[in-house]
What we know:
By secondary structure, the protein is α/β, with parallel strands linked by helices. The chain has a single domain (3-136), classed as Rossmann fold (3-Layer(aba) Sandwich). The chain is 42% helix and 20% strand. It has a six-stranded parallel β-sheet, sandwiched between helices. It starts with a strand and ends in a 5-residue tail after the last helix. The mean pLDDT is 86.
Amino acid sequence: MPKLLVATFSADDKAFIEQAINAGVDVRVLNCFEETQAKLRAWYPNHCLNVPAHRSTVKEAVQLSGFDVAVIRATADDFVKSALLTQTLREARVNWVLVIAADPTRVSLYRRCGAHHVILESGAAEIWQEIAPFLSMHVTAS
C-alpha cells in the first residue's frame, strides 16, 4: 500500500484526501502548524502525523514513517514556509515530493528546494489525476 503525506493542508484538499483513503492509500496529514491543528484533528483523527513545527522533528518523523509521496499545497501568503517544507521533506528521503502551486512564478523556487514535480493549483479531481500515477510508481517494496 502506498504511503502518502499531505502537508500545508487546506479545506480544499478534503475531497482529494478522501479519494486517496478510499483508493486504499495510507494517508497521513502533517499536523504541525498551529493554525490548522484543531481542524485536522477533528477531520482526520486517525490520519494525522502530529509533530512540533520544527525542521528537525518534522524531518525525523517523516523519515521514520517512510513516505512514498508527499503533497505540499504551497500557500500564497507564505511561500517561504512552503519552500522550507519542500526542502525538509526531500531531505527526509520522501521518494517523490509534489508541490501544488497557485503562483506559476514560484515553480522554479520549489524545484530548487527539492520538489520532484510541481503542478499548478486546480480542483481535487485534477489533483488526484496528477497524483495517482505517482502513487502507483512509488510504492514501497515490502
